[in-house]
Automatic annotation (TrEMBL):
Protein name in the entry: LacI family sucrose operon transcriptional repressor
InterPro entries: HTH_LacI, LacI/GalR-like_sensor, Lambda_DNA-bd_dom_sf, Peripla_BP_I
SUPFAM superfamilies: lambda repressor-like DNA-binding domains, Periplasmic binding protein-like I
Keyword Disulfide bond tagged: no
CDD domains: HTH_LacI, PBP1_Qymf-like
Presence of keyword Repressor: yes
Pfam family, one: LacI
Keywords: DNA-binding, Repressor, Transcription, Transcription regulation
Residues of the HTH lacI-type domain: 2-56
The species this protein was found in: Paenibacillus silagei
Gene3D superfamilies per record: 3.40.50.2300, lambda repressor-like DNA-binding domains (1.10.260.40)
Amino acid sequence: MPTIKDVALKAGVSATTVSRVLNNRGYLSEELKHKVHQAMEELNYRPNELARSLSRSKSNIIGLIIPHVSLPFFGELTSHIEEHAYREGYKLLLCNSWQDKQKEQEYIHMLRASRVDGIIMGSHTLEVEAYRQMNLPLVTFDRQISPDIPYVCSDNYEGGKLATTLLIQKGCRHLAHIGGHPKLNILSHLRCVAFEDMAKQHNLEYVTLHTDNNSFDFEAYEQLLGQLFAEHPEVDGIFAGSDIIAAYALKACRTRGRRVPEDVKIVGYDGIMLRSLLDPPITTIRQPMEAIGKLAVDLILQQVQGHSVAAAHILPVELEEGATT
């Protein structure tokens, strides 16, 4: 494997000069830079990014910790984060926590050891002090860890309000919401709060069901839907906490001979691309995933540059009606 000394010998310059070219330090003529880069290309030399980060106290790497990369929402959001980071000259180091406290802690240690410039968190299993002690630029999405840690999210309350209002306008009088457990302390619970507020305002019957402790346990959601139709057969409108849960609701209706949207109307949340492939396509509250991803990266970069940033960043949502309402 070629070294920086081999490049220097090939280019006819000193190793220090090669280092200056790699780190863009001091005045360097275009001719000199071309000569060094040509030598690197001919030798197939690849700089050691970690070593470079140690020398310049900046790695140009952002860590991202999410619960489940296999889920469509997190997959799409990760894609937007990576794309914008790359445009800004940064690489992404992706960690899949599975909502496991030990894994999340290990990944945080790894990211700090890798000298990442900042961390975007979509997982939150540790105590607040653990995040404060990272001593790194930090941004969370859909999680308000503490008042002094910036977060980005969609307007969850407005989304819940839009979804429930649509069901009521479509004639639904027996409503149900299925989502994550309130004790998970994630901002998406505001969707449920809005649902209950709107149902109460219109004096309508409603039921709220949630998993015990894991907002991504979709087998549990399928069981909850079975429970819902067994105990509340009168339900004619479902607001699901995500498009995936909405897809399970659609499946549950078909299994029980309930027509959608004639007998039961369904609204999801997220606006993932996959929902348009379902039959019928699901009505949803679309999160601005591209804007969320871009803003999360921008907030990290602003902190890297020494700027202070506001704590709350709440982006608007849109109702996108499919064929389930």
